Fold:
Amino acid sequence: MNTWWRRIVLSLVAVFGIVIAYGYIYRWGMMTFEGEERTMYQSIQVVIESLTTAGFGGDTDAWNTTPMNLIVIGMNLSGVLLVFLALPLFVVPLFQRALATQPAASTDLEDHVIICSHREREDVLRNELEAADVPSVFVDDDPETVVELTDDGIEAMVGDPEHEQTLRAANIDDARALVVDISDEANPEVILTARELHDDIQIISVAEDEDVTVYHRYAGADVVVRPRQVLGRGLAAKAAMAVTTELQETIELGERLEITEFLVERDSALIGRTIGESSIRNRMGISVIGTWLNGEFVPAPGPETVIEENTILLVAASHERLTELTSRTVPPAEDRSNRVIVAGHGEVGRTVSEALETDDLAHTVIDRREADSVDIVGDITDETTLAAADIENARSVVLAVNDDTAAIYATLVIEKIAPETEVIARANETETVRKLYRAGAEYVLALSTVTGRMLSSILLEDEQVLTPEIQFEIVRTDAPAFAGRTLGEIEVRARLGCTVVAAERNGELMTDLGPEFTVRRDDALIVAGSDETVNRFIAASR
Structure:
C-alpha cells in the first residue's frame, strides 16, 4: 500500500473512532445532565449531524443544561476543524497528485534521440546518451511506465509510435535519431511511419531474429543491430577460452597493441599470487588495465593486488605477449574435459553453438523444446537433466536461457552438483549480473549492456564503443574539457574510476601514458572501465 492510501485509511479509521467516542459521550451526557436515555444509534445520528454541520433533529429542545450545551458546542467545533484540516492535508494534495501523474503526451526537446518503447536495456543507452549530453525521450504506450519514468526525472511520453500523431508529438522533425526496439513485428511499421514523416532522420532498429532483419532494412532502417548474436559470440569466446590455449578475440589498437580480457580459472597457476609476483608486468611486459571480480571493477590495480579465482583481467600488450599470457591463465589440456554444455537454443544459444562448432569444440545442447540441433530435451534447472548431460564431466556450461530467474536457479544447482564445472551465463538485466555472480557463476554478460553499447556507439559520433561483448567497456572518445590538462591533474583513476589506455594523436597511437601526459583538444583517448565509470569520464570530459 502506498503512502497516500495508507494516509486515507488511517484518516477514515480516526474519523470513525471520533464518531463512536462522541456517541458514548453524548449518550452519557444526556443521561447524566438531562436525565433522558438515548440509544447508541440515536446518539451517533446526533454526533454525525453535529460534525457535518448538517443540522439537528428533535434533540435541540432537550439540551437544557450548561454542560450538555458545552458538549454539543465542542462537537460542532470539532466538525468544522476536521473539515478545514481535511482540505489542505488530503483533498487538495489528492487533486494535485492526480493532475501531476497524468502522463505527458508530447515533448519540446530538440536535437534529441527518440527511443520507442522502454526496456531495461534502453536505460543503458539513456545513461550513455546522458553522459554525452545528448537529450532523449522514451515513447511508450503504457501510461504507468511513462509516469514511473517521469517520477524518476526521465523524459518520457505516452503514445503508440506506430501512429503519426505520436511521432509528431515526439518532435520527430527536430530529432537527430530514432531507436526502435518494440518487437520484430512492430518495428517495421514504426520505421515506415517515421520515414514518411522525416526522410533524413537516422533510424536504428533492434532485431531479435536474423530472418526479419531484411524487412527492417526494407522499411527504411539505416542500421539494424542484433545484440543477441553479439552476446552469443561473446559467451562462446569465453567458453572457448576455457578449453583452448589459443588467444581468442582481441581489440586491436595498433600494430603492436591489443586489448583483451582473461578469466583466471580455478586451476590456473596465477591464483593466490599478486600481480607483482605473477611477473605479468615485469617479465612479460603486459599492462594490467583493470580487474573484475564478482561484478566489481578495479582500475589499474597495483602490484600488491592478489589474483583470485575467477578474476577477470583486462590486459594490453602485443599479440605475442598476450598469447604467452593465455598459456598461463588457461591450464594445460591434460586431464581436462573440453566439452561445453549449451543451455538454451534460442538466438543466443544457437550463436554460441555455431561458434563452438566453428572452433571444432565438442558441445551438448539442452533445450526444453525438441529440435534437430538439440541433444537433450529438458529443464536446465532440473538435476535429472543435468545428470543426463553428464554435467560433472563437462568443462563449462553456457547458460543462454532467456530467463534470468532460470539462469540463477541453474547456477545454484550446478554449483551444488558439479562445483568444478565453469558457469558462463547470459543475463537479460544488468541487476541480475551480481546475483548470478553471488550464485556462483564465473562469467556473466548482460544483453541489456551489449544492446546499450551497440546503440550508443552508432548514435554518438565522438564516441566509439570498442567492446560491446565483454565485461569491460572500452571506448574511443574525444575529451575537449580536459584539453591542456595532464592525466595526473584530471585524476582519471582516483576521481573517475577508469583508465586511459592510449591516445591517438595525428594518426599515431601513444601508449604507456603516465600522469604527466597532457591531453590535447584533437586527441582521441582510449578509455577502459565499467559502464558506470566510463560514462563518468565522458560526462566530465564534455
The mean pLDDT is 86. The CA atoms of residues 408 and 436 lie 6 Å apart.
